[in-house]
Amino acid sequence: MEFTIAEMWMKSGAIAKTVVVILGIMAVWVVGVAIERLVVYLRATRQSRAYALMIQDMLQRGKFKEAADTALHYKGSHVAKIIRSGLQEYIKGTMLDNAAQQAAGAGQACYDVIGAVNRALEKSGAREMASMRRGLASLATVGSTAPFVGLFGTVFGIINSFQGMAKEGAGGIGAVSAGIAEALITTAVGIGVAIVAVLLYNYFTGKVDQLQVDSNESALEILDVLVKTPGGPKA
User: Where are the domains of the chain?
Assistant: First the structure.
């Protein structure tokens, strides 16, 4: 028997082949998730930086509606979505507060605009971070289960090796080599898939943490700008 991949595949049992196919599907899924997440994170970083530069002058001039509308052109930016939600809440809250003041008397604060903005920023930030983490749980799942899937194939490979020994009526290496090779294949593939999945999971988790820091800083900066803005948004 030649110990080539093709030869070992032909000699493998149905269980071992099924295990290898499952591990192959896991590997393809890991690669697909990794590529999709990498594109999302790179786009989010690039567009967030561009949006932040774009709205600096708008915020200084109190053009909050214009800054919120500009966010629509940066759909891949989590920061743009968070800032847009905060600015929209500020514009709406300022209108409600002005109307309430007219009804209750000038100078009486009737609506906590900044508190409402803060809540809007928190809700939007949590939603965007959940979106950024999408798919990472599957990487963790593959990383933790792939070795056991490979081990499952290993167990049946060893069983097949002993069955071969019994059929041959001897304990020579030729009787058990096919089953041992089969067992080693599934184990190696399972460990390999798990290593890649865990490495990617840790890498992308670090990326998400950095994106969350960026979003938190942006939310605090927007709150600071709004608190220091007298008279509400400019037309």
Answer: 16-147+193-222
